[in-house]
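Submission sheet (multi-component)
Chains listed below:
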Amino acid sequence: MKVLTFVLVLVGLAAALPSGPVNPDITGAQVFRVNPTSAAHLHYLYGLFMQDLYDFWTEPRAVGKNVDIMAQRWMVPVLKATLSKVGIEHTVIIRDLAEMTERSKIANDRALEVAKRTNPNPKHNMDWTAYHRLDDIYGYMDYLATTYSDIAQVESYGKTFEGRDMKMLKLSKGGSGKPIVFIDGGIHAREWISTATVSYMMSQMVENSGSHAFLDKVDFYFLPTINPDGYEFSHTNNRYWRKTRSATGSPFGCKGVDPNRNWDFHWDEVGTSNEPCSDIYSGSKAFSEVEMRNVRDQLNKYADKIKVYLTFHAFSQLWMYPWGYTSALPADWKDLDNLAFDAVEALTSVYGTLYEIGSSTNTIYAAAGGSDDWGKGVAGIKYTYTVELRDTGNYGFLLPPSQITPTGKETLEGVKVVGEFVAKTYG
Ligand SMILES: [Zn+2]
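Outcome: structure written.
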């Protein structure tokens, strides 16, 4: 009996962890929107965030800024009681996450089906009316390199933990030694709009390169997903998977590291967890993840030419610059702020989508080990930004496929401003 109880406790524990070993049962899971109205509330929520009991879809940022928290079915009453006890207002924004996830999957599958049926170009399967799997994205990159071989080149810059290729497209209209804008997406697996937006911008710049004058003076490197194992897993097993898929040695079988807590600059100092089952697990050491080492090597290789490094996430509509590990600002923060302002102004002019601008710590609680901090602090790239794309939580990670192209269009306008700035300043 004792053994059985022990086993049941273990099973219960493993199931209760936010990124457990198996596809978590999200039946009855709910997403709460809470509004911290005082510094005490905010502090309390941050404490809750660090406890790993819930999956924070957005992190506690500031008084008056909503925080979206997902609770598994058996934790729903606990969270409700906890929030009520401390007097934090909350509403349930998703009543049944399983049902909503299923509906979202059906919508995307249908969109993929239509895309396949109406595909105008039999040479690739990519489009921006649906979220595509890795094969379609890579197939499209190869297609671009073949079709536009004078300006586009695809490289595999390493393998993932599970042995997948990591691919990058280099867009260069010739001439050597040009400044580079380096763009990656999908570091967090479930943030599908990030991968889709990076591939959208890549598509527009390569296929319409003639209409972007700055490309005569600036090269663009695109890495649509720098966490391919996680991305595939979020399609096949767990829609809410965030981390890599590496083995951690966890006794519960928990896998993966938060790749945006894994970079070697003030690594593991703040806003991270040492628990392998946590969604913000920083890893056994800095750069424990092969995928992040691979991206790091590319950033290092071209560090003297990379003038801007943009890393895309979702969601919250934020355009952020370092530092993330401290609330102190870099000495040249005004320069970063100015360029962010111009980019966001162009983005907003398309559909009126509003973004907030600021340093990572002033817009989100401190979190060390992010790629943007490393890019600035170690690689010495002056302009590094973390951009949180659409939306502000209406759909969150389940942003409908119909919003991919609009998100791509508006973000491209912001990135064009960045391209023009680099051409003018360094070209
Ligand atoms: Zn993210």
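Remark: The chain has a mean pLDDT of 92.
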